[in-house]
Specification:
The chain is built from 6 helices and 21 strands. It is of the alpha+beta class. Among the domains are: 88 residues; 93 residues, Immunoglobulins (Immunoglobulin-like); 130 residues, Neuraminidase. Strands 2, 4, 7, 8 and 9 form a 5-stranded mixed sheet that branches. Helix 2 packs across helix 3. The longest helix is centred in the first third of the chain and has 92 residues. The protein is elongated. Keywords: Coiled coil, Metal-binding, Repeat, Zinc, Zinc-finger.
Length: 474
């Protein structure tokens, strides 16, 4: 604020001063405010001399109503300066018209600034009020949503309660029906004492059939035992099955020795010779040998008999280029490994090609010169993927890869040119490796159980690898 001139000589009327500061309509209100303010300020000056504008402002804040402060704050400060100068007895004008105009502008700008701040505060208060309203709305919405969710959860619990009760009632009715049926069946039984008759089996009247067949290594042998009583009547096989004993020597060269019931009342005696040679067979009933036992039989090398030619029908652009392995499942589906085309073909029993699986590559489901295949079950096969050094487990119905195991290397579970694959009697996977001259016996999970052979000295010009036809046991 501009300094008040020291040339003040006389006190100008306060109304005239207010008219210069405030035009037209505001003059009356400004003068009334100014006169009211001057009287209060004069009272303060009589008690003590104000030494700064800040002291005058403090008095203003304690005496002026709140709604007038923004209008006359700066005017009051100027008035205090005038009163102070007048008290010193100066008789000259205290300032020029230009200075008064400047003072007026300062007062006006200060009042406008106060109004702007007041407007800003009103906006802030309005925002607070809107935030409070929004909070209330959100609270009401959240409250309704919580109530709705709670009601929904209660309804779901009630529904499950009804379903559980209905299920329990159904189970109760079913159990009661079965219990009542069993009760009626027991009540309907003839509880009279019966007579148990022991009918001995006559050994010399229990012949063995099937001794005139040709026996081959690896092919199951089956005899038929016809147990009879003394009167020649065939005895129920369930009565004596556990009394029949089948012995075959040498025992280490046979597998799957079983005695099974047949539908016609006889018993089936089975075993599988592993290798060619002479075998001694002995059958006992209740520890007593049959009159035709002991007998020997000769097992020959397994023979392949051509019963016909399989006419495989390809789809367009399909052909054999280096087929090297074939496998057939129990449904007579046929899988052929086509080595040079890097794929396998699946045929039905009529010889029609159902699908081609794989192509050349290293990704799962792709092959590099596959060499062998076997069925794990009617839908799944294992393929020896030679130059990818792995075994692939594939579903023939979808062509999808279920698992792969193995990689190039010398350690257990690794391969170098796996060329042949089969299952032994314990359902273990047996793999021959061409490059390392060894055999790995593995679980179906692809974990190596043990190995046979190694990659030691050999005739590099004549690699010797045997395709597996014998069961390993450890």
């Amino acid at each position: 604020m501009p300094q008040v001139s020291s040339r003040f000589t006389r006190r100008r009327p306060l109304r005239q001063f207010a008219e210069q500061l405030f035009p037209q309509k505001s003059v009356e209100s400004s003068c009334r405010s100014t006169e009211w303010t001057q009287s209060h300020v004069s009272q303060g000056l009589q008690s003590r001399r104000l030494r700064s504008t800040a002291e005058a402002t403090a008095i203003l804040h304690t005496t002026v109503p709140r709604k007038r402060k923004s209008q006359i704050l700066l005017l009051t400060v100027s008035t205090l300066h005038l009163s102070d100068l007048h008290s010193h007895g100066s008789s000259k004008p205290f300032c020029s018209t230009k200075q008064l105009t400047k003072i007026k502008e300062n007062i006006t700008s200060g009042a406008e600034m106060v109004k702007e701040k007041e407007a800003e505060l009103c906006e802030v208060i309005k925002e607070f009020e809107e935030t409070i309203s929004e909070l209330e709305r959100n609270f009401a919405t959240a409250k309704r949503e919580v109530s709705r969710k709670a009601e929904q959860m209660i309804a779901n619990v009630r529904q499950r309660e009804r379903e559980a009760i209905l299920s329990l009632e159904t189970i109760r009715q079913s159990r009661l029906e079965r219990i009542n049926a069993a009760k009626q069946e027991v009540e309907s039984l003839d509880l009279k004492l019966g007579v148990i008759e022991d009918i001995p089996t006559v050994v010399n009247q229990s012949p063995i059939e099937g001794l005139d067949q040709t026996f081959q290594a690896g092919v199951e042998v089956e005899f038929t035992l016809c147990p009879k009583a003394a009167d020649g009547v065939t005895i129920n096989q369930a009565d004596i099955k556990d009394q029949v004993e089948l012995l075959v020597e040498p025992a280490n060269d046979v597998t799957n020795v079983t005695v099974q019931e047949k539908e016609d009342g006889n018993l089936s005696l089975k075993f599988t010779p592993k290798v060619p040679g002479a075998y001694i067979v002995e059958v006992k009933i209740n520890g007593e040998k049959l009159p035709t036992c002991t007998f020997s039989l000769t097992v020959k090398e397994r023979e392949l008999v051509i019963v016909g030619q399989l006419d495989l029908k390809f789809n367009e652009s399909q052909e054999f280029k280096g087929p090297c392995a074939i496998a057939v499942n129990k449904q007579d589906d046929i899988v052929v490994v086509n080595t040079n085309v890097h794929c396998v073909y699946v045929f039905n029993k009529e010889g029609h090609c159902l699908r081609q699986i794989g192509k050349e590559g290293t990704d799962p489901g792709q092959f590099k010169y596959p060499t062998d295949v076997l069925f794990l079950n009617d839908n799944e096969i294992l393929i020896a993927d030679r130059l990818n050094n792995r075994i692939q487990h594939i579903n023939i119905q979808t062509g999808s890869v279920l698992k792969t195991f193995g990689q190039k290397g010398e350690g257990k579970g690794s391969f170098r040119s796996p060329i042949s694959i089969c299952l032994d009697d314990s359902e273990r996977i047996v793999v021959t490796e061409f490059a390392y001259n060894r055999i790995q016996v593995m679980s179906k999970e692809g974990e190596t159980i043990f190995t046979i052979g190694d990659s030691g000295p050999r005739d590099s010009a004549n690699h010797s690898v045997a395709f597996l036809t014998k069961t390993f046991s450890r």
